[in-house]
TrEMBL record:
It comes from Eleusine coracana subsp. coracana. This is RNase H type-1 domain-containing protein.
Length: 275
């Protein structure tokens, strides 16, 4: 029996072909979607891995950076301490040289006074035999006339002439120790904060501000003299009010106060042998 293909067979073949094309297209689109999803997932995983590595590197670098900073701070502290030690040694050496110069100057001045007091006839006979060794400072006589002088002065910031927005409220204490030849042996300069008497509730007492600052400068000068081993000085000042207070010349009629002030002045005189 012979079967003849008609129009229905052609239509079926065309339909099958179209179904095949549609299926292939669907499979191709599905493959593209799957590939796209895979790429997106890989990108997300790579991004997450990068963030994790970044945090890991940051956390691992933090201890090293902290250690480096600590070592740098320690090195700076050691360098500063070493510089302070060198400065202290240089200061002590300078004080030792100044103290030795003071001893020699005092010895020469006393010896010159003794030689000046020698009569001419004795000098003509025994002038070549006079000598005086350099003795220890503790063995020298403290009753002799002072050979060294202490000059001091304090200047407050409100005495500075010039334009400025406000008064910083500071002062400078200055003192100098001069030897028998008039040369400066040691000079001291020190900044301090000045105290207003009116701010302490002592109205009308600002006139004593200069006296207080000059007294502080005097103390700095006496300490400088003592640091050089000088036990007897002559104090030079232009502050008459301070001078009167030190010598208790202007204490009024309060004898008890005068007695206490006289005792304190005596102690200061014995301590510094300057007044």
């Amino acid at each position: 029996m012979v079967v003849v293909a008609g129009d229905d067979d052609d239509d079926l073949a065309a339909l099958l072909e179209q179904v095949g094309l549609v299926s292939a297209a669907a499979i191709s689109a599905s493959d593209h979607d799957h590939a796209f999803r895979l790429q997106v997932e890989e990108a997300i995983q790579a991004s997450l891995a990068g963030v994790h590595n970044h945090h890991h590197n940051a956390s691992s670098s933090e201890p090293s950076s902290d250690l480096a900073y600590a070592l740098a701070v320690q090195a700076a502290d050691l360098a500063r301490a070493e510089q302070d030690r060198r400065d202290a040694q240089a200061c002590r050496a300078a004080h030792a040289v100044a103290a030795a110069s003071v001893r020699v100057a005092a010895h020469d001045a006393r010896f010159a006074r003794q030689l000046a007091a020698v009569p001419d006839d004795r000098w003509a006979r025994d002038g070549d035999c006079f000598e005086r060794p350099l003795l220890d400072p503790s063995s020298s006589s403290s009753s002799a006339r002072p050979l060294f002088r202490v000059f001091f002065k304090a200047v407050s910031s409100d005495q500075v002439v010039g334009p400025r927005d406000r008064d910083p409220g500071v002062a400078v204490l200055a003192a100098a120790v001069r030897g028998p030849d008039g040369k400066v042996v040691l000079r001291v300069q020190k900044p301090v904060f000045q105290v207003s008497f009116s701010s302490l509730g002592l109205g009308g007492q600002d006139a004593y501000q200069e006296v207080l600052l000059d007294a502080m400068a005097l103390v700095e000068g006496l300490h400088a003299a003592l640091s050089l081993g000088i036990s007897s000085v002559k104090v030079v000042t232009d502050n008459n009010l301070l001078c009167n207070h030190v010598y208790a010349w202007n204490l009024g009629s309060n004898r008890a106060e005068a007695c206490r002030y006289d005792q304190s002045s005596s102690v200061s005189a014995k301590e510094f042998q300057a007044m």
